[in-house]
Amino acid sequence: MKKLVGYITSSIPSNDFTVDLALSMKEAGVDILELGVPFSDPVADGPVIEKANHIALNSGFKLKDLFEASSKIAPQMDMLWMGYMNPFFHYGLENFLKKANEFGVNGMIIPDLPFEEALLVNDTFEKYNKANISFVAPTHGEERIKKVVENSKKFIYMVAYAGITGSGQSEDLSSIISTVKKYSNTPLYIGFGVDEKSCKEKAKGVDGVIVGSAFVKHLLDESLSNSEKIKKISAIAKEIKEKINE
Predict the structure, then answer these.
(1) What is the pTM of this model?
(2) How many CB atoms lie within 10 A of CB 84?
(3) Where are the annotated coiled coils located (predicted)?
(4) Which CATH homologous superfamily contains domain 3-244?
(5) Using CA atoms, how far apart are residues 69 and 192, in angstroms rounded to an integer?
(6) Confidence band (pLDDT; 50, 70, 90) for 168?
(7) Annotated catalytic residue: which of 16, 27, 31, 45?
């Protein structure tokens, strides 16, 4: 069965809501939660997730909020932290990994940590048995892909196009998919621009999909009550999980 990874930004509008939403998404078919660590300059993210980051920060988000929500979610579902290197570096990467160990968070997705720099911290991730998710992109050649994926853990994040999340572009990825599969048995999941309309097509040839903006846009919809947001996002998660496995 193909997997669904779901991203939400932490602590919008509250830690308790984040916990309730995450667990409802699990019930709806989300296999792995990416809990977003709000940051002021989320360079890989499009306007929807960028806005969510800014709302969280303007509402007074602190790392203790991330830790509080994570401590309640991680014992109940597979989850990762998704964020940018600045907060991890500022707090101390090893301190973050200790917290991950404490709560049962299984690793991190850090889109602005280049592969070569990630090699410098691999030992720290290994020490705590946590995954640092590897990225491959349509711009990568075969040698680059081989290097990136041969020691990958948990899953490989395939960027669907060169750009930012949620912009809905498309590229022919068949050759990059076959190259990744040639060098790694680690599951390959596709992200960027995946929603309930595009998921079935994008899931072809890969082991799962990563969905962020399609969920977060409803998280930001002020016309919905909190309970309606949970229902809406969970319904979309259920629809995507069904479609990618048809």
Answers:
(1) 0.94
(2) 22
(3) none
(4) Aldolase class I (3.20.20.70)
(5) 25
(6) low
(7) 45
Let me know if 34 is a catalytic residue: yes
Tell me how far apart the alpha carbons of residues 140 and 19 are, in angstroms, rounded to a whole number.
37
Q: What is the identity of the amino acid at 103?
A: F
Tokens of 61: 């988000």
Can 201 be counted among the known catalytic residues?
Answer: no
Question: Residue 150: helix, strand or coil by DSSP?
Answer: coil
Which of 20, 27, 34, 207 does the annotation list as catalytic? 34
**In this structure, which amino acid lies at residue 196?**
E
Please choose, from the candidates 6, 24, 10, 147, the residue with its C-alpha nearest in 3D space to the C-alpha of residue 71. Answer: 10
What are the tens digits of pLDDT across the range 52-90?
Answer: 999 999 999 999 999 999 999 999 999 999 999 999 999
Position of tokens 């300059």? 41
Query: Which DSSP string corresponds to 4-38?
Result: EEEEEETTSS-HHHHHHHHHHHHHHT--EEEEE--
3 state DSSP class of 147: helix
pLDDT tens-place string over residues 95-135:
999 999 999 999 999 999 999 999 999 999 999 999 999 99
How far is C-alpha 123 from the geometric centre of its chain's CA atoms? 22
In angstroms, rounded to a whole number, what is the distance separating the alpha carbons of residues 117 and 131? 15
The answer to whether the Cα torsion of 50, 197, 233, 63 is positive or negative is negative
**What are 188-213's pLDDT values in tens digits?**
999 988 999 999 999 999 999 999 99
Q: Say whether pLDDT at 166 is over 60.
A: no
